[in-house]
Amino acid sequence: MTRAILAIFGLLLLAGCAAEKPVSELPAMYVNMAEPGAHLDSEVAASMISQYRQNNGIGAVVIDPALMRIAESQAQAMASKNKLDHDVRAPLPKRLSEAGYPATLAVENVSAGYHTLAEAFSGWRDSPPHRENMLKNGVTKMGIAASYAPNTKYQVFWTLILASSDPR
């Protein structure tokens, strides 16, 4: 009888340990942005882009709140019009000026259809003009956004703005 009680107690302890196993969270770069309420981790994006730039001998970039707002506005404009286009609302220089952003240098990547940050980053990295923008010398700040539009062809619209406001 004592053996049976000890065996049951041992099984309960093992079951309790199994139940406490932490659930692993999906890395931020793999979060599916094609879902309601999905959140893009801009710090992870900045880290990925900065590491890529540093691997190519170029300085890191930091998140700029104003560029985040401008990128968000562009991603939302593309999503609302179901149109992948740099100029869907206005050309980048005009959007920066209207927002009062004192850019001395700025480039922009837009894309659509990528559901994760990892996919968007890979698409930009593998496209010569987008790669050139990510590796633009002299930019120091960034803003990035993804906008979900479930009833559109692409579902997710992306905007990445890299800029500098430093005097030349």
Percent in strands? 15-25%
Segments where pLDDT lies below 50 for 5+ residues? Answer: none
The total strand number stands at 4
Radius of gyration: 22 Å
Q: Can you list the strand order of the major beta sheet? A: 1-3-4-2
Protein structure class? alpha+beta
Summarize the amount of helix as a percent range. Answer: 40-55%
* Ends apart, CA distance between termini: 84 Å
- The ordered H/E elements are HHEHHEHHEE
Q: Looking at the structure, what is the overall shape?
A: globular
Number of helices: 6
Whole-number mean pLDDT: 90
Q: How would a crystallographer describe the biggest sheet?
A: 4 strands, mixed
Describe the structure.
With 168 residues, the chain is α+β, with helices and mostly antiparallel strands. 43% of the residues lie in helices and 16% in strands. The chain is built from six helices and four strands. It has a four-stranded mixed beta sheet, with helices on both faces. The mean pLDDT is 90.
Provide the fold topology.
Elements: H1 2-19, H2 42-55, E1 62-63, H3 65-81, H4 92-98, E2 105-112, H5 117-125, H6 128-134, E3 141-148, E4 156-164
Parallel strand pairs: 1-3
Antiparallel strand pairs: 2-4, 3-4
Descriptive tags:
globular; alpha+beta; 43% helix; 168 residues; single chain
How would you briefly describe this protein structure?
This protein has helices at 2-19, 42-55, 65-81, 92-98, 117-125, 128-134; strands spanning 62-63, 105-112, 141-148, 156-164.
